[in-house]
Design goal:
By secondary structure, the protein is α/β, with parallel strands linked by helices. The chain has helices spanning about 30-40, 70-80, 100-105, 135-145, 150-155, 180-185, and strands spanning about 5, 25, 25-30, 45-50, 60, 85-90, 115, 125-130, 160.
Amino acid sequence: MSTAAVMAGGKSSRMGKDKLLIRMEGETLVERAARELAGGFDTVLLCVAEAGKYETCAEPVEDVFRDCGPLGGLHAALLRTRDEGVFVCAGDMPFISAEAALKVVAACGEAEACVPVGADGRPEPLFAYYKKVLAPRAEKLLREGKRSMRSLLDISRVKSVPAASLGGPRLLENLNTPEDAAAAFSES
């Protein structure tokens, strides 16, 4: 058994509209992410701030801690899974692949999380694998008002993998602004 979770609880404030409903090649970004991950994982969860928004493409999981960003979504997914952990992906990443996601999971080994690192040295915590053991730590951080995914990574045993070893140069690209979306459509 394996579980993946698409993070779909954001406000899309920089995009000016719900970016996960942007259509690319006949499907919304959130449908695209869920479909791609379903090709490699037994269960695909959809982490949402509130139920009712995108339920047609994956099993919805509501945040326990509302308005706490991706850490709140990760926490909810870790509580829901029956597996050893959850692969997490941002819903606004149109070029992901299940193959790359499974490479991240396989690389984790004894670590508590496995996170790709770009050529610039920055980790991408929203295309990463987190073990269920991290749920209590995530909850503690959320109760303390800490919402950063990096705050969880800072207190966890993390394995890094070079993003370049996972796939194409656009794998970890996400769409935050209308300009990002225009570039993605013109280059895809």
